[in-house]
Amino acid sequence: MRTYALQPVIRTLLLLAIFLALPGLAQQPAPxxxxxxxxxxxxxxxxxxxxxxxxxxxxxxxxxxNAALAPxxxxxxxxxxxxxxxxxxxxxxxxxxGKPYINRGIDGQTTPEMLVRFRQDVIDxxxxxxxxxxxxxDIAGVTGRSSNEDIEANYASMAELARAHxxxxxxxxxxxxxxxxxxxxxxxxxxxxxxxxxxNQWLKNYCAENHLVYLDYFNALVDERGMLKRALADDGVxxxxxxYKIMASLAEKAIQKALAEK
Length: 262
Prior knowledge:
Helix content: 40-55%
Number of domains: 1
CATH superfamily: SGNH hydrolase
CATH topology: Rossmann fold
Number of helices: 14
Order of helices and strands: HHHHEHHEHHEHHEHHEHH
Number of strands: 5
Largest sheet: 5 strands, parallel
């Protein structure tokens, strides 16, 4: 008996079975983002899946504004502030009236995300000075676990890119956090003080070794318990208007120091 005549039939049946299974496969739920053990952070990370998969650096956020921004006029020292929500929420024109200071902060970002958009949101804007405030979300694990060494490597990459394009660099310390309010408890727990202190010490040393300006927000905002002063933040992380006033004064001095250095 010949059996090879059945092969086309079997092949057709196999293909039909695969075709019928496809709708069921397509309806399978997408894999969940791994839990961090912190419900609020898990919810936040889940809400950002489209960002992490479609536009990790969030280049779309400032693309149109950058395209509409003319190059700085001769003699104008443009300054770019790069950072996360602490920078994003900072209304720079209110604290630096008349200054050519550009806000390029994005809520929730970590240092790897900032590196993705570094060319578009920093280099291509031709600033004289760059002020970087970053790292608190890396510590919290917003885009995944990061060691201090990972964060330090990203800081160094930013500095090297800025140097290559003749941009003077100001590195701001990571701010302290507090847990004086219920809203602050989880954010505080995700940002161990010892990691903040270690990264700030690394930044201070790196700036000294590489002739960069270190902007010490931490010691101006910290209280006697080593936490962010209660009056300067309601949620334990983001400064109030009074907090931003203190930061603005320190930032302006750091910017002028960077401009004065050869």
